[in-house]
Amino acid sequence: MKAYWIANYTEIKDTERLKKYAVKAKEAVEKYSGKILARSATNITLEGREMVRVALAEFPDIQTAQNCYNSEEYIEARKHLQDNVIREHIIFEGM
Q1: N or C: which end of the chain has fewer CB within 10 A?
Q2: Rounded to 5 degrees, what are φ and ψ at 25?
Q3: H or E, element range at 36
Q4: Helix, strand, or coil (residue 73)
């Protein structure tokens, strides 16, 4: 069954650092047979906390998604997020 990453950002301090993260993260996702499906700062919050950015990626399965998240490449990408963003990051299975 396919798996998805969803990252919901509630705060971004430095958008230039976020752009650097996005480049490195995309490389890691693609290395693990993933695909970025959507990224947007334009969204409408209907329930819950207001999000300033949302990102969605698809992977072949949940183990591959988790392996990507724990990979050296993605750990390196996440360094651009330290002290820069507040987000929730979830991996889930879906169709």
Answers
A1: C
A2: -65, -40
A3: strand 35-40
A4: helix
User: pLDDT tens, 25-67?
Assistant: 999 999 999 999 999 989 998 999 999 999 999 999 999 999 9
Query: How is 45-60 classified by DSSP, letter by letter?
Result: --SSS--SEEEEEEES
Three-state DSSP class for 26?
Answer: helix
Helices (H), the chain: 15-31, 62-69, 72-78
Which tokens is 62 given?
A: 């949940």
- Mean of per-residue pLDDT scores for the chain: 96
Helix/strand/coil for 32: coil
Neighbouring-strand partners of residue 91: 5
Determine phi and psi for 48, rounding to 5 degrees. 85, -160
Query: What's the rounded Cα separation, in Å, for the pair 33 and 23?
Result: 16
